[in-house]
């Protein structure tokens, strides 16, 4: 019970016994506790060091030890323990600051030395970098995945990365080839993702594997025919913008998993209804209730629509949807 204060079970039993029988000496304690004499003697020494026992001032007439009152002795131990905990907390806080500083230095060094294109050789290098990018993602994670599960990340690792991103409110959009609709693992992943607010579509063909994070960095395969050879990390704004445009074009003509085919403008029924509700001036909460989906899904879908429309506000998105004949 008092282990947290540094008092083990035997020492605690000795202390309690002396509080009840202050005249007892070593032999009485050994007989009462049924413990070896050297063990009881060691506990007495430990209690003396912790100031829970003091030598009897009368030379032993009233017993060789005088137990210190728990209100004083244990309270003093507790205060020392609390002080030690506070010191450790301060050390941990300092360590956290040091880690943050080192991470900033690493990012700065990486930023200084990183060119607009960086080669990542081999699957391990790609997976390691992809894990870093998804961990830092703040708004969106989009991908093309030809031929089934991602060549860049195995299914179990993909689930872990996506779960963490979704928990931070990151929008995840994936496009597969139509043939993957008959792939059991891909269907399970699409259902898992949809249940958490992610979006999955398919189209007849895809140009290559592609990952875009926050519309600022992209990964493309070194060899589209063999993605496992590695990838090229692209940060050049013009190239990334072109890849984003490619993704949006393919996304618009792709068909959502588990939904009716999109209309001539690439809109699913949910997206078209959401745009109509937007023009009606309803709130996100009301739209979520009417559509029977979560508030997070409404906001992610709206974010996707605004991105496709190139709109900076919802009012502008509604106006552009009308101009393009979407409504």
UniProtKB/TrEMBL annotation:
Ranges for domain HTH luxR-type: 260-325
UniProt record, GO biological process: regulation of DNA-templated transcription
Family matches, as Pfam families: GerE
InterPro entries: Sig_transdc_resp-reg_C-effctor, TrmB-like, Tscrpt_reg_LuxR_C, WH-like_DNA-bd_sf
A GO MF label: DNA binding
Protein name, entry field: Regulatory LuxR family protein
Species in which this protein is naturally found: Thermopolyspora flexuosa
């Amino acid at each position: 019970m008092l282990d947290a204060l540094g008092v083990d079970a035997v020492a605690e039993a000795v202390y309690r016994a002396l509080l009840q029988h202050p005249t007892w000496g070593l032999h009485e304690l050994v007989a009462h506790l049924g413990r070896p004499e050297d063990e009881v003697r060691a506990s007495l020494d430990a209690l003396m060091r912790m100031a829970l026992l003091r030598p009897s001032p009368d030379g032993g007439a009233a017993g060789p030890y005088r137990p210190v009152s728990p209100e004083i002795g244990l309270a003093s131990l507790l205060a020392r323990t609390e002080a030690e905990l506070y010191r450790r907390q301060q050390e941990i806080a300092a360590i956290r600051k040091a880690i943050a500083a080192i991470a900033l230095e690493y990012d700065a060094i990486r930023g200084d030395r990183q060119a607009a294109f960086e080669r990542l050789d081999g699957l391990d290098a790609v997976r390691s970098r992809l894990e870093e990018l998804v961990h830092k993602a703040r708004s969106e994670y989009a991908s093309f995945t030809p031929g089934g599960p991602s060549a860049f990340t195995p299914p179990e690792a993909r689930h872990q990365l996506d779960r963490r991103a979704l928990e931070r409110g990151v929008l995840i959009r994936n496009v597969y080839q139509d043939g993957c609709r008959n792939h059991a693992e891909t269907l399970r992943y699409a259902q898992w993702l949809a249940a958490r607010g992610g979006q999955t579509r398919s189209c007849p063909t895809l140009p290559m594997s592609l990952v875009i994070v926050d519309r600022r960095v992209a990964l493309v395969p070194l060899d589209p025919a063999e993605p496992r050879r590695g990838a090229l990390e692209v940060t050049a704004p013009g190239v990334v913008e072109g890849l984003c445009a490619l993704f949006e074009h393919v996304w618009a003509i792709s068909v959502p998993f588990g939904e009716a085919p999109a209309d001539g403008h690439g809109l699913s029924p949910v997206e078209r209804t959401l745009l109509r509700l937007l023009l009606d001036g309803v709130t996100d909460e009301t739209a979520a209730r009417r559509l029977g989906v979560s508030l997070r899904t409404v906001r992610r879908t709206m974010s996707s629509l605004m991105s496709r429309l190139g709109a900076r506000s919802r009012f502008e998105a509604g106006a552009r949807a009308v101009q393009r004949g979407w409504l």
